[in-house]
Amino acid sequence: MELEKPWRDEIGYLKARLLEAKYEAELAKGFLEQGLYRNAAGKAYQAWKALLAALALREREALKNVFKDVKRLRNGKRLSEADWVVAFMPSTRIRHVAQILARKYGDELLMYTDVALNLHEYQYNGPDKEGIFSRYFNDDAAREDVERLLKGVEKFRELLQQC
Questions:
Q1: Which Pfam families match (predicted)?
Q2: What are phi and psi of 70, to 5 degrees?
Q3: Quick check: pTM over 0.85?
Q4: pLDDT tens, 50-94?
Q5: 103 within some domain
Q6: Which residue range forms the structural domain that includes residue 37?
Q7: Among 5, 26, 90, 136, which has the highest number of CB atoms less than 10 A from its own CB?
Q8: CA 34 remoteness from chain centre
């Protein structure tokens, strides 16, 4: 299945992102069961990122008020920065997007985003007892947040499917 571009097919893009969130969450659960916490953290992060992209599509007008630049794609096509953010949801923009979305969907969305970003960091660096490279002192703390984030993915995925 090819991911549709949001400026071409909003409904197709939304469905694909919701499916992506579901599948990534399922993979994260499987990794948790196998004790592969760093892999689970990465998949939980990807699930949340897909969900944020779907929510951002719904609130594209709000994003256009903040992301006003124009981006140039590899093929030379010009695209509004808001559409670029919705399509690619770069990790450098995730927290800012979540702040905007939290105005409508509540602060819980921002909390889950912070957890997702912490897990993304943990995925690459593992646990760190000194707290320099990772906010997680051990794998169990990360496992707890993976479980927490997966609950958030499910909650917001259900919310989007009702709309």
A1: PaREP1
A2: -120, 135
A3: yes
A4: 999 999 999 999 999 999 999 998 888 899 999 999 999 999 999
A5: yes
A6: 10-162
A7: 136
A8: 23
